[in-house]
Write a structure and sequence with these properties.
Blueprint: E1 19-22, E2 29-33, H1 38-55, H2 60-76, H3 78-89, H4 93-117, E3 121-123, E4 131-133, E5 140-144, H5 152-164, E6 167-171, H6 177-189, E7 197-199, H7 204-212, E8 216-223, H8 225-237, E9 241-246, E10 249-251
Parallel strand pairs: 5-6, 5-8, 6-7, 8-9
Antiparallel strand pairs: 1-2, 3-4, 9-10
Helix pairs in contact: 2-4, 2-5, 3-4, 3-6, 4-5
Length: 252
């Protein structure tokens, strides 16, 4: 059975400061951030692609060490991360800090198990010769993340891909700019090479351009069916790998 969804274009954005912190209790705008320029987008794509060419050559055990350190920093900075998330999306502080700490478990799991999970998988052959399934990195990936779990959603996308050797451009929800910047800072402080993880405040038309760029090898989105239909259509037109989590249903 094939489910077909009519693709709709992503809605245009005219306000250049769409990324903003809004107090959930009062509706007051606390801080605004400018949308990325076209030059910012090009720099992000070029940097992520160049970083991938070097990051993929690092032994997976070395990549795993960096990923493990990312998880440790989420715990060390849980207090600050919690305050940021609570300010941006209204989650009780205890839950915000708990989410940040839980990210350590995700990064730790892939740091510890990644080298095994990514190992060659032998398969039977007809004539007895040796054949294996290899799990190899593909390149720079775009992640489009939602507001409701600003740290957890990023962690489960970023951790396995960074261990495998891919690099990431991350477009977070417009209502979580401080969370997005804090995650990027953690990635850098943990020792990820420059360009391996890049946060962008992109608008919807820029997202389409990023997916279409030949240097981007795939896209992962968690969001609405409407957004998934649009992103899936663009990815399909450009023969890009795509993972969509839409209302709890994951489509690949």
């Amino acid at each position: 059975m094939i489910l077909q969804i009519a693709a709709r274009p992503l809605p245009a954005i005219t306000n250049e400061k769409t990324y903003r912190v809004v107090n959930p209790a009062t509706g007051v705008v606390v801080e605004e951030f400018p949308t990325a320029t076209e030059a910012d987008i090009e720099d992000a794509i070029a940097s992520a692609h160049q970083a991938y060419l070097a990051w993929r050559e690092e032994p997976i055990e070395e990549r795993a060490k960096v990923v493990a350190r990312i998880g440790e920093l989420f715990v060390e900075r849980a207090e600050e991360l919690g305050r940021i998330a609570t300010t941006e999306m209204g989650k009780p502080l205890s839950q915000s800090k708990g989410e940040a700490r839980y990210c350590r478990d995700i990064f730790s799991y892939f740091a510890n198990e990644g080298p095994v999970l990514a190992g060659d998988q032998p398969i039977k052959t007809i004539n007895g010769t040796r054949a294996v399934i290899e799990k190899r990195p593909v390149g720079a990936l775009l992640g489009i993340m939602p507001w409701n779990y600003p740290y957890y959603q990023v962690a489960r996308f970023a951790a396995p891909n960074l261990v495998l050797g891919n690099t990431i451009i991350l477009k977070h929800a417009e209502s979580c700019p401080r969370s997005a910047l804090m995650i990027e800072r953690i990635m850098k402080d943990a020792g990820l090479p420059e360009g391996s993880y890049i946060n962008i405040f992109a608008n919807h038309s820029q997202i389409a351009d990023i997916i279409s760029d030949p240097r981007i090898q795939g896209v992962s989105l968690t969001g609405s069916e409407r957004a998934g239909a649009a992103v899936g259509a663009i990815a399909g037109q450009n023969l890009k790998k795509v993972v969509l989590e839409l209302g709890g249903q994951t489509l690949t």
